[in-house]
Structure formats: structure tokens, C-alpha cells
Amino acid sequence: MHPAASASDQDNAWITLSTCRTLVEADLLRMHLDAAQIESFIPDESLMQAVSFNVNTYGFVRLQVHGKDLDSARQLLSTLAPSESAEEPTVDYSDVPLTAGPRVVAFLIPPLVCVGLIIAGAGYGHYMTRGYKRKASQWCKCYLLGLLFWLAVIVAIGVWRTHHQPAPLSPRQIHPQGFQLPPPK
After folding, report:
1. How far is 7 from 4, CA to CA, in rounded Å?
2. What pTM value is reported for the model?
């Protein structure tokens, strides 16, 4: 059992003032608190920097202040709150283009025939379920372009082989002295 914390311990303890959606948002609030000479701390900062591929690993970033500064920090945050009329900018993910890596994959998988068709369908479904219509369209275009390319390569190889087939060899060409039977016994 822990003894009751003293008032000075509670004043020095870090208390979560706000949970922000991104590290940038938390850093902006920390900058305002620093300007008002209120010491603040972002305990999730290192984690968010280390896991940069997933900006919202836990869905939030905590901003903490000392217990003694909690009231003044809340007062400052209330003056910084956005107005009701301010709307958040939205991003239309349906028009984001497909990057080079998935384009190359979509181009190279057609020779795999059945497996390639399954991968192509999975890629298309992946983009469509997430609302990336442009990426899904570009995925299909790259797959079809790759399919046409590989079909053209197969046809070209077949045509080349038929035109460059050597004539069948006669028995004299196989053995220059002629075809000889083994001596009788």
C-alpha cells in the first residue's frame, strides 16, 4: 500500500492536459504552452517518431503538464480552441495516384496466370474498399497492360521459333558416311 501523496508531489506530477490526433498538433499546443512559460511534455513523442509509417499508432498523442500548471494550461487552451465555424480540411483519397511499386507489381504478375489473377483481384479489392478509386483504376490498367505485354512476348517467341526452325535432318546429314547397318553375326 502506498502512502498518500503529498500536495507537492501532486503539483509536480505530470497530468494529461490533452490528447491530440497527431504529433504535429501536440507539438503546436506545446509551443503555445512554452510561449506562456508553462512546462509541458509529450510522452508519446519518441514512439510517434519511431513509428512514422503509422502516424496514429494508438489514435492519439498525449500532452502533459505539471499538476500546479493544470488550471493555467486549461485556461490557455480554452482561448486557443477553434471556432465552431472552422471546418477541418478533408482529403479526397479517391483521387490519390498509385505509386511506382504497385504499378510494377501489377505489370509483372500476369505471367503467373491463375495466381496473378487472384493477386490482381485482391489488389483491386484492397484499393476499392478503402475508397482509393483512382488507385484501383490504375492497378487494373497496369495489370491489363502487363497482360498484353506478356501475351505479345509469348506470341513473338512463337512466331520467331516457327520462322527459325531448322529443316528436318536427313539420315545422311546425321551420319556423313551414310546410314550403315551393323555387321551380321
Report:
1. 9
2. 0.41
Nearest alpha-carbon partner for 65 in 114, 109, 29, 28: 29
Taking the C-alpha atoms of residue 136 and residue 31, their distance in angstroms, rounded to an integer, is 41
Contacts of 1 (CB under 8 A, 6+ apart): none
Give 35's contacts (C-beta < 8 A, 6+ positions apart). Answer: none
Residue-range domain boundaries for the chain: 11-80, 94-163
Give all strands (DSSP E) within 8-78, no chain letters: 14-20, 40-41, 61-66
Query: Which cell numbers in the block locate residue 66?
Result: 505539471
Whether domain 11-80 has CATH 3.30.70.3340: no
Q: Which residue has the cell 503546436?
A: 28
pLDDT in tens, 124-158: 888 888 788 888 888 888 888 888 888 898 889 88
Crossing angle of helices 114-129/100-108, nearest 10°? 150
